[in-house]
Write a structure and sequence with these properties.
Blueprint: H1 3-14, E1 32-35, H2 39-49, E2 55-59, E3 71-75, H3 83-94, E4 102-105, H4 108-116, H5 118-121, H6 132-139, H7 141-150, E5 158-161, E6 178-182, H8 185-192, E7 199-201, H9 204-216, E8 221-225, E9 234-241, E10 247-259, E11 265-271, H10 275-288, E12 292-300, E13 307-313, H11 320-325, H12 330-338, E14 354-356, H13 358-370, H14 376-382, E15 387-388, H15 398-403, H16 413-423
Parallel strand pairs: 1-2, 1-4, 2-3, 14-15
Antiparallel strand pairs: 5-8, 6-7, 6-8, 9-10, 9-12, 10-11, 11-14, 12-13
Helix pairs in contact: 2-12
């Protein structure tokens, strides 16, 4: 038996979710492969599995989606740090399948590797991806904002910074506060981890002090004006476009809160209808010739009332399962389209349904509580109504148990709550060597 196959057998034996599978995965009946088993991948797995699609879930380390009853988990090499080993692993495990499975990408690591090796990987999978040059441009935040501007979309003022001398070329008209973030996601995460999106700076001295250790680690960054407004000004446009340019579905949501607050990932979001957001999303995606699945985050600027682009992602977004609960199942539409089953477009979805990461949102509440901006009653009221969670589902409960380390984290809960509510600080040190290292956001 080959080494990759032996690793797969060991990985399968260690998965607690596999005993619940209503089918046995093999080369003939596994019809979809989800790359990346973070919350994003778990949402895609559930959306496919609940429709009867048989799924393999693949990642280079265990994560919450590993334990879903709707997929068979497999361990693979790191697609970026061990790219050739990853490609060899794909060849060994998928080269003799009689039918190509549909491939889904839920993390940047797999997306980038697949995109630049698409000619090889298209021999083993069917998928719908934007052109590689476009994905490369989107991965570069400065390039991303340049093409968005050409498409007629409003963007915040942005300056690329690759060396300390670039700070001397900033215009005198630049306004503070400003925000430092990575120019490309992989360089940033290599040093900063996935939990830290960037740093707000209040003046020139603050800028130079916080950017220096980042540049010393050879991480190119962009400096961007801060768009004025609360977390609820953040909106997201999500869509799926076929390879021939047909839009099958469009979904919109707004953030209720995010973590870290003001510059983080949506910890509580809600499905909404917003015609202006749809118009701007279409303008952006059509203007750059985008195909496949993607999302774009915008924010209303309180200074001029305009929607401005925050970020464009050419893959599934973290809260994708919310759209499925709202009767707009993007992964299943994606699956039907790339497997030539002619899906019908979905033109409406339910609004007012919330996606809540309870842990992140509690941390967000704790921060706002310490700042005197949110009390417990207001927080609870903001979460009222129908909700969906990234970890727990009645038909797929094991991932939620994994999230609490199968009960072991409950022993530490009282102390963790005390620290978050009364002792911890939301200020993140600019010393990049002390940043908590996470691999995903």
């Amino acid at each position: 038996m080959s080494e990759p196959q032996e690793r797969n057998r060991e990985a399968a034996r260690s998965s607690r979710g596999n005993a619940m599978l209503p089918w046995r995965a093999n080369q003939e009946n596994a019809t979809a492969v989800v790359f990346g088993l973070f919350e994003t991948g778990l949402g895609v797995i559930r959306s496919l599995g609940q429709q009867g699609v048989k799924v393999y879930g693949i990642d280079y380390k265990k994560d919450i989606g590993w334990y879903s009853r709707y997929s068979k988990p497999l361990h693979c090499p790191d697609p970026l740090r061990q790219e050739q080993s990853f490609l060899d692993w794909i060849q060994e495990n998928f080269s003799d399948w009689s039918l190509k499975p549909a491939a889904f990408f839920t993390s940047d690591d797999f997306l980038i590797s697949f995109s630049r090796n698409r000619n090889l990987l298209s021999k083993h999978f069917v998928f719908n991806l934007a052109e590689h040059d476009l994905i490369q441009c989107i991965a570069d935040k400065h390039c991303q904002f340049q093409i968005a501007t050409k498409a007629g979309v409003n963007v915040p003022a942005t300056w690329p910074i690759t060396k300390a001398a670039d700070l001397d070329t900033l215009p005198d008209t630049m306004l503070y506060p400003a925000f430092i973030k990575g120019q490309d996601v992989n360089s940033w995460r290599r040093v900063m981890g996935g939990a830290i999106k960037g740093f707000q700076v209040e003046n020139d001295h603050d800028l130079r002090e916080k950017i220096a250790p980042i540049l010393r680690n050879d991480v190119p960054v962009i400096l961007q004006e801060v768009i004025a407004g609360p977390d609820t000004n953040h909106l997201k446009y999500c869509s799926y476009t076929s390879s021939d340019g047909k839009i099958f579905a469009e979904f919109t949501l707004r953030k209720i809160r995010q973590y870290p607050v003001r510059f983080g990932v949506g910890s509580a979001v809600e499905s909404i209808q917003n015609a202006e957001l749809i118009e701007e999303g279409r303008k952006l995606f059509s203007g750059i010739g985008f195909k496949g699945i993607g999302s774009a985050e915008f924010k209303y600027d309180n200074r001029d009332g305009k929607l401005k682009l925050i970020e464009l992602n050419p893959r599934y977004w973290q809260q994708n399962y919310l759209s499925t609960v709202c009767n707009m199942n993007f992964p299943y539409l994606n699956y039907l389209d790339i497997s030539n089953q002619t899906p019908a477009p979905i033109e409406s979805f339910q609004t007012g349904i919330k996606w809540v990461n309870r842990y992140m949102d509690f941390y967000s509440f704790a921060t706002y509580r310490r700042e005197g901006k949110l009390n417990f009653r207001e927080w609870r009221k903001s979460l009222a109504g129908k909700k969906v969670y990234p970890d727990f589902a009645w038909d797929d409960p094991i991932p939620a148990l994994y999230g609490i380390d199968f009960g072991r984290k409950l022993y530490k809960l009282p102390w963790a709550l005390y620290k978050k509510l009364f002792r911890s600080s939301n200020h993140v040190r600019a010393d990049v060597m002390d940043v908590e290292r996470h691999s995903r956001a």
